[in-house]
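Quarterly update from the structural biology core.
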Amino acid sequence: MADTTIINIRAREILDSRGNPTVRTQVLLQAGAIGKASVPSGASKGKFEALELRDEDPSRYLGKGVLKAVANVNSIIAPEIVHLNALSQTEIDEKLKKLDGTPLKKNLGANALLSVSMAVAQAASQALKVPLYAYLGKRTDYRLPVPLINILNGGSHADNNVDFQEFMIVPAGSSSFSEAIRMGAEVFHHLKKILQKKGYGTAVGDEGGFAPDLKSNEEALELILESIQESGYNAGKDIYLALDVAASEFYEDKKYVFKKSGGLKKTTDQMIELYARLLEQYPIISIEDGLSEDDWEGWKAMTDKLAQKTQLVGDDIFVTNLERLKKGITQGIGNSILIKLNQIGTLSETIETVNYAHQEGYSTVISHRSGETEDTFISDLSVALNSGQIKTGSVCRSERVAKYNRLLEIEEELKDKGSYAGTQVFA
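Predicted structure, tokenized:
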């Protein structure tokens, strides 16, 4: 068996898809195997997320440099991790957590810790000569995730007048992952033609979805329905709709203020009524962050009213944090959790949260961030954990498409050992 002892760890500052610095770490094992991992960065962040450490030096990258995080890997973490066995992921992640010493990784930075945690797993899978999903999952049967494909952007992801952050298509009625991606790409291209025909701009936002100035959130849904029809598919059978409202972004003084589209203010009850009406009008299979991270009572009311009709995904309210998820489950909040590695800071904690969610009957959606790199770790992770759903943006921009392309490779490798999750994961 290959020697999986860690002999070198090196971090460096690289750029993400928005041209901002992020951390990439390389782990070298005695047998010669190398693991590399790059950490993403979010624009719309929950305030309970683990800390993304930035330099705050205005003379470099407008204060967004990550040399402190890089130095923490190279000078503090590496000496403690070198000589450990890369196969001991849990032990290494526990060591990382202790080195930082805070729940939200405020000393060394979640970006520093996560880059090492992910790179160790990559190196281990390389040493064993098995795909990352097989190393992490060790299953006999795997499930390819349903993609939630972001094709219209608003909110913090686009400079337009649309308040809801993401409008997604969900090809859950497909027979395979590769068919789902083909369907998604066809709808994306038909949407571009429709936007051009109506005189709208077709520039894309951070996650590759179009970002036109529209008259309303409802118009976005109507345009997508038209695109699905033009592509020859049935909305609500072949392809469904999903929303990421990112309501925490416009929650002020216990009101939801639609700043980008006229300043209209809505109460929690009015927001819930809005979603109830949208669910009656449109085949919406999932609503993420419909209410704010601080609106726990509202989340409970929304869950009581809507949970039997659609998937209610908690992102900002749960932030991939097991303790917050447990609190939410106890209080009957939501029925699904968004999973972002950099919200918690280590691979082991992420896996623990996913497994607990599944145990309690919550669905899980493995997710990218708006600031991404070409790293495809989350593609393998979604398959390894049989999550059943993945969010990695539009079928546009290579840092998004890289994740889909990796899943196409995995589907081909698995053959009859892999099945497409389909509509059953939303039950």
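The mean pLDDT is 96.
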